[in-house]
Design goal:
Order of helices and strands: HHEEEEHEEEEEHHHHHHHH
Keywords: Membrane, Signal, Transmembrane, Transmembrane helix
Transmembrane segments: 187-207, 216-232, 252-278, 320-344, 373-395, 401-422
Number of domains: 2
Distance between the termini: 50 Å
Pfam families: CAND6-7_N, GOST_TM
Strand content: 15-25%
Radius of gyration: 28 Å
GO cellular component, one term: membrane
Helix content: 55-70%
Structural class: alpha+beta
CATH architecture of the largest domain: Up-down Bundle
Domain CAND6/7 N-terminal: 37-168
Number of helices: 11
Shape: elongated
């Protein structure tokens, strides 16, 4: 009890930390979050709980049902009496929400329900223990709003069951998608069809060029398949939410295919970067370690993603989970870069060694392509993780679909570059087919082996020096 109160007091006295955590939570847009929610809040001491963010048109609705309300003191002897009028729900424009959080952090006596920036829906003084209360608000001024619960009594925590509905009316019909996401179902389905065509062409190429096919091409086929299935689930998920407010199980399918797609994407990038199956038929120990790092990190990342998505407002530390999600994603991004750099170094050394102009020319061709691959990978990861978020903040809530379209366009361009340059075709400057490049394979493999031996020798020398000391 005491630790919870101390943490809450520290949170009140740290407005910058509060604002940072709030921004971090808001910046994570839940993909499969339905717009009809049932949430159970149990003994929660948080002074502010963000339930939903929604983009409204000029005729939107917000409905909130609250039941099974109970209060509990954080201390044996509270410093202030229980005053339910200092608890309640309010709406606030998304761009004004930071001001509310900042004021709450600087002035402990100020209750967010009394802020000039908010539109109170109801206070808990209107309720009685064991009763059910519902409130409906009509949105006449279109904007992006946050539905927030405020607890201005730091000595008390609250338990309740909350049912929320948010929707826009379109010609009398309810649309549970935010104003900026109504185009997503059709857009995702069209992109799904594009990837189906992509996959069909790729399979056709693989079948007709079977003699020059390598193992990596099957992994690339699986990546395209799971990418297409993820987009199909995304389309159906958004379509069902728009009509009914819930995904009807499509969110589970989305999580599954998103997991396999994400894992395969980083695996394929790492395998291509190492030159496995095409530059040489084996992996070095350090490359195996990279793969054994990426795959568990992808599992952990997807677990964090699902935890944040499904828990919603009930999760106690949303900022921490989002931080975990961000750090793991960045670790995977950095991890897949190292094999590409190792291959570039090996090709550079191979091109500089004596052995004939033809061999040097081929190594330089592969070196040039690897450098392009490195730049494209870095650009793709940077664009989808930084530029897309900045673009979303710049365009506003009405153009969320455009941000998604831009990110998917970047992904399609990246896939096109990778699949075109590393397709199974004879005389490909990257793919070394047949016996004409066997000497080069041996040369590059020897360079990789020497690199590993140099690393191990360096470690042995360090251990020897430590023993002497």
């Amino acid at each position: 009890m005491g630790s919870s109160t101390a943490s809450l007091a520290k949170f009140h006295k740290s407005p910058n930390l509060t604002l940072f955590c709030t921004f971090l939570f808001i910046s994570s847009i839940p993909f499969s979050a339905c717009e009809i929610k049932d949430v159970r809040i149990a003994d929660d001491p948080r002074f502010m709980i963000l339930f939903e963010r929604f983009g409204f048109r000029s005729d939107g609705r917000v409905i909130v049902y609250v039941e099974n309300i109970s209060y509990k003191s954080n201390r044996p002897y509270p410093s202030s009496p229980l005053d339910p009028s200092r608890m309640g729900f309010f709406l606030v424009r998304d761009r004004l929400f930071p001001h509310v959080v900042n004021n709450q952090g600087h002035m402990d006596h100020l209750c967010a329900l009394s802020s000039e920036y908010v539109k109170p829906m109801f206070r808990f003084s209107d309720l009685t223990i064991g009763s059910t209360y519902n409130s409906t608000v009509v949105i006449s001024n279109p904007d992006e709003y946050n539905l927030v619960f405020a607890n201005c009594l730091p000595d008390y925590k609250v338990s309740m069951t909350v049912h929320t509905e948010m929707y826009n009316l379109h010609y009398g019909d309810k649309n549970f998608l935010p104003a900026g996401q109504t185009q997503l179902p059709r857009m995702y389905f069209l992109i799904f069809l594009t990837y189906c065509g992509f996959l069909a062409v790729w399979v056709f190429i693989c079948v007709h060029r079977k003699p020059v096919l390598d193992k990596i091409h099957w992994w690339m086929s699986a990546l395209l398949l799971f990418k297409a299935l993820k987009l199909l689930c995304a389309s159906e998920d958004r379509a069902y939410i728009a009509k009914t407010g819930t995904p009807h199980g499509w969110d589970i399918a989305f999580y599954v295919f998103a997991f396999f797609k994400g894992t395969l994407l980083f695996t394929v990038i790492a395998l291509i970067g190492t030159g496995w199956s095409v530059l040489r038929p084996f992996l070095q120990d350090r490359e195996k370690k990279v793969l054994m790092t990426i795959i568990p990190l992808q599992v952990l990342e997807n677990m964090a993603y699902v935890a944040v998505e499904e828990a919603g407002p009930a999760i106690r530390n949303p900022a921490w989970w989002n931080f975990v999600f961000l750090v793991i994603d960045l670790m995977c991004c950095f991890a897949v870069i190292f094999p590409v750099l190792w291959s570039i170094r090996a090709l550079r050394e191979s091109a500089g060694r004596p052995g004939g102009d033809t061999k040097a020319y081929r190594s330089l061709e592969k070196l040039t392509l690897f450098r392009k691959f490195y730049m494209v990978v870095v650009g793709y990861l940077y664009f989808t993780r930084v530029v897309a978020l900045a673009l979303g903040a710049l365009l506003g809530y009405r153009f969320e679909w455009l941000v998604a379209l831009t990110a998917e366009g970047a992904s399609l361009g990246f896939y096109g570059f990778v699949f075109w340059n590393f397709q199974p075709v004879d005389k490909n400057p990257y793919l070394m087919i047949g016996g004409e490049s066997d000497d080069n394979i041996i040369e590059i493999s020897r360079i990789y082996t020497l690199d590993d031996e140099d690393d191990s020798d360096y470690e042995d020398e360090e251990d020897h020096d430590e023993e002497e000391e």
